[in-house]
Give the backbone structure.
Amino acid sequence: MKFGIFYEHQLPRPWTEGAEHRLYMEALDQIELADKLGIDFAWEVEHHFLEEYSHSAAPEVFLAAASQRTKNIRLGHGIVLMPTNYNHPARVAERIATLDLVSSGRCEFGTGESASRAELEGFAIDPATRRAQWRETIEQTANLLAMDPYPGFEGEFFSMPCRNLVPKPVQRPHPPMWVACSNRDTIHLAAQLGLGALTFAFVDMGEAKKWVDDYYETIKTECVPIGHAINPNIAMVTSFSVHRDADEARRRGLDGFRFFQFGLGHHYAFGNHVPGRTDIWKQFEAMRDSLPDGGMGEGGIGTPEQQREHLQQFADAGVDQVVFIQQGGKNKHEHICESLELFAAEVMPTFKENEAERERKKMEELAPYLEEAMKRKQGMRELADSEIPPIVPYGYAIAETSGDTALDEATRLRRERMRKMGEAVRKSQS
């Protein structure tokens, strides 16, 4: 298997001076360490207004910073929110391509639709259309990244004329595409569309095996890619805290993981949130002893031996990547780093030894199915050169209709140079 680390940038109250800055700097230090240790992926969310649970509103900035402190680790959006009021598809494509360039081809393009009321209503998004918006915009974002030029599109939620997106990514036709999944139906949809499944659900291993089997059977039989390439991979999240003493591992990591779940529930299910005033950590502390345990998700907290047994279940189920929720609640930076180092020294080698061969065999088996799936894709038609509409500049029409007629000498001379240049171009073309 491969391994990833996952960031919400959680910051429980009370908030002290400089806490957010320290949170970000420590996360960058952790990713730099993970890269040196051989961890495969670093995932970063996009959320808005979800106080304490996620202070991660601009993942493209954070991941770009991480790219300059690392060499090998894959840098994943887990995820970009795709409804158009969050992000215009062309802007998403530009940011994905730029991250891929500055990271030398290490970008992973995870997508999602969002579900919290704070976010959806904060950006005036109709919850009833969020899935349809996601589906329309991820397809067009992939087209923007892959096509030269993009022929233009008139859709229900997104429209734009023919343009050629620059820059283009290192990974062609585009970086690997993923979708966030919280249930079996979404995993099935991911397989149908040829997307990697980034799975945020804590289920027993018997159920996980069913999800993985269904995903790969669907890839083989029903896949019609929404992008220009298929990313046949399934990742599942789990908790993370490793120490040679099991009780100490729980003391260091259990509260953080349970707050992760409590904060999620607060913003998505049961919380009554007053912006800028509600203290979620205080509520968590008051209810800590009466909360249900985290179930299968807590299996990543323990000794190296216990974690090996836990992770072996994912491997046996056919999971491609396990993603660790190590930054949760008030988990301490030094404990996270110590856990990563112990994991890399005593647990990870067990699963890395044959990973390249496992991946080779998997892709060899899938190759004919992926080829057939790509044949089923009905892509946008490329424009012939004669069909590409030219873009004629406004010239000075905007300034002249704005009432700004009093020109300084420098502006008058600049316009005169542009006029003469235009005459020369037209003469050369006649």
Summary: The mean pLDDT is 95. The longest strand covers residues 74-81. The first helix runs from residue 19 to 37. Residues 2-376 form a domain with the TIM Barrel fold (CATH 3.20.20.30).
